[in-house]
Amino acid sequence: MDQRVVVNTERDMPYDSEGRISRWRNWSGFWLLGLCNNFAYVVMLSAAHDILKQQESHNSTLPTPAPVGNTSHYDCNPVSTAAVLLADILPTLLIKFSAPFFIHKLPYGFRVLVCVAAAVISFLMASFSSTVWMSILGVIFASVSSGLGELSFLSLTVYFNRDVVGGWGSGTGGAGVAGALLYSGLTQAGLSPRTTLLIMLVIPIAMVISYFFLLDFPPSFPQWRCIEAETLPGEDSNNRQPLLGDSDEEEEQEKGDEEPKATGPLSFIEKLLVIRSLLRFVVPLGVVYFAEYFINQGLLELLFFPTFSLSHAEQYRWYQTLYQVGVFVSRSSLCCFKIRCIWVLSMLQCVNAVLLSLAVYFQFLPSPIPAFALVLYEGLLGGAGYVNTFYFISKETGDRQREFAMAAASVGDSLGIALSGIAAFPVHRYFCSL
Questions:
Q1: pLDDT digits over 338-386, tens only?
Q2: Cα(430)–Cα(145) distance, rounded to whole angstroms?
Q3: More confident residue, 278 or 190
Q4: Distance separating alpha carbons of residues 4 and 243, to the nearest angstrom
Q5: Segments making up each domain of the chain, as ranges
Q6: What CATH number does the domain located at 21-59+75-245+265-432 have?
Q7: Which residues contact 100 (CB under 8 A, 6 or more apart)?
């Protein structure tokens, strides 16, 4: 009997109450995992201006800011918030470049515990830091937690129905809104950044609960064993993979009769071929993220309106908050519509970057209100690029390659973010020297 049919009858019960409860638990579990995984990353970016401003008075070794007369229009920090961005993304980028080739040797349960521990350390170090470099180290731990978590949880989706990809994407968008709103709201209410970051320690606890107690894992899921050990002699390795999208009627109609598939783990050459096939997704996703994070960490701290009722720090926080609102809305949009042409989103995001660069240079915006609208629109484009990229990768990649493909493709957004952080440094220096 076809192994695939056996698994379907066990897992996909669209009209059975237990099947509906299981699918709802898994969707909710991935939503919460997306929220918890990206929360520390978002909070560190929202706190970037405060981290640098707070340490400015404590760290006399920082470069001396430009004279006040030259910076009255821009109110520059001595160090660009891109420094926090790079600390928040470079460890993630390193993990995403290397881990897909060996991460399958580490059990999923162990990976999750490492993510939780790194997130706890990040909040504690950023809270109790006395120098800017200690704060940056806390940001690095947040990056390790987020990078390892994203790569692992995207790979984990192949063991469940494809619906969980939408749950994960929506949860990561929700992390942006929750993280930025909570940080902005609590600090606006009078709490110090240190106290606010300590309150965030509840998030790693929520990740443990979501993963170990909410998800309904398949009976054969390798929770504490490496994946390679799960393929026993004489056993079809595809037996663990068809859980993704088995009940997707549209895909069933497209597939029709399937040819016999190769089995066993992917070889190094096969992994390289998968990476090459992913370039049509990874490159436009990287461009989207390069443009939007160049805006967020290179331009927004310079887009300051001194006559407005909000202070510079408050304006920066609400830029980040509105951006995350846009990301959340668009990452939750798969149930309504899907966008196959990611290149269109890339071009529109580049237009945003050019427009806001001109706004910083010529200062033609009368108030932050138009800038708030542009930042919200920027978030909509970025979130749509992310969730649609991984949806179509999961849909168009073969069962045997899908787990590796989902992990490998996650490097696209991180690479774009890292390049934008590097580009933001000379831009910050240029504007602050005017």
A1: 998 999 999 999 999 999 999 999 999 999 999 999 999 999 999 999 9
A2: 33
A3: 278
A4: 9
A5: 21-59+75-245+265-432
A6: 1.20.1250.20
A7: 151, 271, 404, 407, 408
